[in-house]
Amino acid sequence: MLLATQGTALQAQQAAEPEEEAPVAVDGEAGSAPVSEDGDIVVFGTRLKGQLTIDDAPLAEYNEADIAAFGASSIADVIAAIEPATGSSARGNRGGGRPVFLINGIRVSSWREFRSYPQEAVAKVEVFSEEVAQRFGFSPDQRVVNIVLKPNFQALTAEVEYEQPGIGGYSYNEQELTWLRIGEKGRLNFDVEGQDRSLLTEADRGLSVGGNTDEAEFRSLVSDTFGLQAEANYARAFIDSGTSLSLNGTFARKESLSLDGLATDGISVLERQTDTDSYSLGSTINKPLGDWNATFTTDANHTRSETDIDRFDASGFDTATSRTYTIANDLTLTGYPIQLPAGDLTMTFDAGFDWKRIESDDTRTDNPLSLTRRRVNGGVNINAPVLRRGGPIGGLSLNFSGGVEDLSDFGTLANWSLGANWSPTEALNFSATRIWREVAPSLTNLGSPRIEELNQTVFDYSTGETVLATVISGGNPNLVAETQSDWSFGANWELPFWENARLQANYGINRSRDVTSTPSFSSAFEQAFPDRVTRDGAGELLAIDRRPLTLYKTRSRILSFGLNTRGQIGKAPERPERGEGRGGPPQGAASGQQRGGPGGGFDPSRMEAIRKVFCETPEGETPDLSQIPEMFRARLLDDAGNPDPEKIAAARERFCGEEADQRSERFAAMRTALCAEPPKLDELPERMLARLKGEDGEIDPEKLKAARERMCSAEGAQGQVENRGGRRGGGMARMFGGNPNDTRPRYFLSLNHAIALENEVLLSESGPVFDQLDGFAVDGALRSRDTTRLEGGIFWQGYGMRLSGNYAGEGVIRGSGQPGSTDLFFGDLATFDIRLFADLGEVTKSEDGWLEGLRVAVRVDNVFDARRTVVDGNGDVPEAFEPFRIDPTGRYLGIDVRKAF
């Protein structure tokens, strides 16, 4: 592990030790080891380095085996697979997009830094609620995803994809090559990706407007695109200082071609060509400062976009150019300055300096536009535990955050939030948060160049007809700052009757004033903003101005429920006999008897290999930790994820010093006493005798028999080590590969359902009020009261299936009520996507050769070829909402071949 964990990683446990040693610490605290029914010691193990240790329970978490079941290729695919758990649907109009990310518990400069990493490099993924984002200097409107990477990993992966609709028309192909190496001191990653998609026209789907089929082949439904992206990521840990540094750079180019019909001469094709180049650089520096931890991130980007738009009169073309320059710098300082009776007070200070400039010009105007914004911000977040968990009414903590930002173009804006987090039991958690903040519109909304899209298919709600009109997009320099006032309530319950299952409920109330909105077209939009719609003298729709505008006030309420679970199907098999899978059963063991309990998979030869790593390395040199198992190696790292000299010295002493020889002698004496005929119980240590006794205080014959079988076999003679580490009794067996007989299918399920209770727009203090759920959509977007998102899958012996589902309830968009106008009624829509994959190396049990690391996947999106039905008041389908127009793709097929070297 190469990066520090911002004070969140748990203290590492010590190595497993013989019988007489003190119990191993759990999460950094000493405690007695619980005894299982068969006499084995079971001690819950440490968390992985980089996991978060906070009061808030995770909404969902996925371990390495769960992630393998996703059938993902990269971290970006993993995040897509868990999207129902990461979406902040209870935030109403806020949030709901990509969550904020931590790598090993640390902020990163950008999504680019890790998105292309192979999914095999991930050890664990944790998802936390929006309130946790404040502790890392983020605003509380998106959930937090913490990605824990494996400390040692290297792979070269190559992937090719081919996709197309089930009925053809266009195709898509993608090629990607990724190399990643993670070591104890750093990580290095290179990724190159190319994409290409062909054009789809109205003629390919048999569409037309007003019966005019002559232009159908010159109007595109899916644009022709090409993309190329190359990125490099580097990270390094400096062991002596505990400092870590990461750098990333990305270049991307995208080309897009759309067709807008024919010009007035009836011959020239109207094309719209957009070319975009972007260059990005980012960096993260993490450094301990005494009892505090500081993280600095910087991200710089330059994007140039040029759009060539053919003129309607066929006299040439116009060019709209946009150039953006962005530099974002953030510093967070996290510490635990005060010890309260219920725990540590956590404080996070954040400060930032951002600079952004947008320049746009258009050959149709003589006034190029340029806007510059300088932003300086600062804030604090305080999390105070009030009641310790385990008390009469459970644990309670309070959270406060506040901040200000000064913008060169909007002045000083403020924000604050206050929250409470109550856990009446370890499995149940409640939270309530009040959020108030002022937000400036983005420079993109303020200063994007004006672009006119000609001959766009638009439904005119006033006449009930489908027409071809000009749609105008771009920026609006007259936008004002928005004021947001929200309440959020949440509950998170770990189900007692379903292992690894959590149920969440969230209720959000949003109130906003001076809201920036980018509208579409509707009757309500034309009523609210008649100057944005152009008609001729006969009332025919000619143009719609969709540039951003300001809504006086919005109100929304939303209730959502989520279920996240993972696990294995069926009853766990018994542990194998000692020696099974390594040359047969141990000497003196009766066939078919259960032995070893939770520790049945211990391999003395591997423990001997660990001993050699320490004992054969000269004094003063760091042992090669890559030669020992991952979970044991993690215990030897400091909070920065680097080899800890003190822990390594202590481990060397245990394995190689005089104390190790003494323990070996004590173990030999203990084994001699236990294996004698009859056993010499009076020569056994008191702790071992206690484990051999039953509830009546007398020696339990079954426990004594099991102990003799373990200790007196050939393996036992080499030195039995207690089962320590590994949650839920996994222990050393899990560390060294777990139970080889456990081939049960593994599944995951993530389901989220949201109910919109209110969504209204006010145009002024005195009204009118537009109820968007009832179809009076000012921004022209359909509002469904019910939406559902599903992600689930199953994985078994190399074969896997992932199922994705989306549901949107029915809805309506109202007409103007004038003669000739009509309402539009939208049916509900449910789509399901299936991804089938096979890891051929695992299927064929190949440990080398070309099948090793080879995966073939087949995808079918929208399996049932479902499309939303839209009808007017007469039950007819308008041309603008023909099924093939609103969804020209339908069922979508693809094949993906991936090879990991």
Automatic annotation (TrEMBL):
The record's section on InterPro entries has: Beta-barrel_TonB_sf (IPR036942)
Sorted alphabetically, which keywords does the UniProt record give? Cell outer membrane, Membrane
> Which subcellular locations apply to this protein?
Cell outer membrane
Query: Where is this chain compositionally biased, Low complexity type?
Result: 1-16
Start-end of Basic and acidic residues biased regions: 572-581
Q: Where is this region: Disordered?
A: 1-33, 564-605, 712-737
| Superkingdom field | Bacteria
User: What's the chief localization of this chain?
Assistant: membrane
The cross-references to PANTHER family, in alphabetical order and at most eight, read:
PTHR47234, TONB-DEPENDENT RECEPTOR
- The name this protein carries in UniProt is TonB-dependent receptor-like beta-barrel domain-containing protein
